[in-house]
């Protein structure tokens, strides 16, 4: 029975590998195409992990259940804040960020999680503020070879969810309004590895991709009248960060 399960897992993995390779080799000529490929690849990886976990994992039950807090620092892609009138990008393409996460492992392998993030750029006196977060589910791959390391456990994970964001951007120099506020929402998916020490201390890293929809933002210029300042539409946003935390 066990050998049959292993063969079935191997077949599923091979099919997923073939599909994944097709996505990797597929065309990525546009930025949006690269984003779609990224989402597709991470989705396939998620399905593979969910198939592999029952066959390979048999850790002690309940060791990873309970609430946890994480504090993270890293960088966020922010290259969509270009003034359409002047064609000048406000701020930098990548900004430092800080993040706070709270989750609860209902099961060892599953946890709902809320994370909040913030970044800012002085922008020569025209400061930007970007705040947002994710509501998602963390699926952790529990495999005995990664858990039988003494006081340390290695815990790969994927995290699909919904991202939200509020951005306060500089207004156009020809407008009396110094700030423009825009809101975004859309799907997100991330993944990484967490290391736990004595089941309590967290260390780890994560990469994440978000696809946020922002409405276009206009201002009344003097002279000039109404004008589009920030382009609307879907904005892909990449993030990478390290984390520390405590699991109760």
Question: What does this protein structure show overall?
Answer:
This protein is an alpha+beta fold and 248 residues long. The chain has 2 domains: 1-56; 61-247, Porin (Beta Barrel). It has 3 helices and 12 strands; from the N terminus they run H-H-E-E-E-E-E-E-H-E-E-E-E-E-E. It has helices spanning 2-25, 31-56, 144-147; strands at 66-77, 82-83, 88-89, 94-105, 110-121, 128-140, 152-170, 179-197, 201-214, 217-221, 225-230, 233-247. An 8-stranded antiparallel barrel has the order 1-4-5-6-7-8-9-12. The protein has a two-stranded antiparallel sheet with strand order 2-3. Strands 10-11 form a two-stranded antiparallel ribbon. It is elongated, with a radius of gyration of 21 Å. It starts with a helix and ends with a strand.
Detail the poorly predicted runs: 19-29
Helix content: 10-25%
Cα Rg: 21 Å
- Characterize the main sheet: 8 strands, antiparallel, barrel
Number of helices: 3
Strand residue content: over 45%
* Mean residue pLDDT: 81
Q: Give the CA-based shape.
A: elongated
**CATH architecture descriptor of the largest domain:** Beta Barrel
- How many β-strand stretches? 12
- The CA-CA distance between the termini, in Å, is 37 Å
CATH class placement of the largest domain:
Mainly Beta
Oligomer: single chain
Number of domains: 2
Please name the CATH topology of the largest domain.
Porin
Question: Could you give the order of strands across the largest sheet?
Answer: 1-4-5-6-7-8-9-12
Order of helix and strand elements from N to C terminus: HHEEEEEEHEEEEEE
């Amino acid at each position: 029975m066990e050998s049959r399960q292993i063969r079935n897992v191997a077949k599923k993995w091979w099919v997923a590998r073939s599909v994944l390779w097709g996505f990797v080799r597929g065309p990525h000529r546009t930025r949006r195409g690269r984003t779609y490929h990224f989402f597709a690849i991470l989705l396939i990886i998620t399905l593979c992990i969910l198939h592999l976990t029952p066959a390979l994992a048999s850790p002690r039950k309940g060791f990873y259940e309970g609430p946890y807090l994480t504090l993270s620092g890293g960088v966020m892609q922010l290259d969509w804040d270009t003034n359409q009138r002047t064609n000048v990008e406000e701020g930098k393409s990548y900004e430092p960020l800080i993040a706070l996460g709270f989750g609860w492992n209902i099961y060892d392998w599953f946890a709902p999680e809320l994370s909040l993030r913030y970044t800012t750029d002085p922008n020569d006196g025209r400061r930007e503020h970007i705040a947002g977060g994710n509501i998602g589910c963390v699926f952790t791959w529990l495999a005995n070879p990664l858990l039988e390391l003494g006081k340390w456990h290695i815990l790969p994970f994927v995290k699909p969810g919904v991202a939200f964001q509020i951005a306060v951007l500089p207004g156009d120099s020809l407008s009396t309004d110094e700030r423009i506020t825009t809101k975004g929402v859309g799907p997100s998916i991330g993944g990484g590895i967490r290391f736990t020490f004595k089941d309590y201390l967290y260390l780890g890293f994560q990469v994440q991709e978000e696809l946020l929809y922002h409405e276009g933002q206009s201002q009344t210029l003097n002279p000039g009248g109404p004008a589009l300042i920030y382009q609307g539409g879907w904005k892909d946003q990449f993030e990478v960060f390290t984390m520390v935390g405590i699991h109760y």
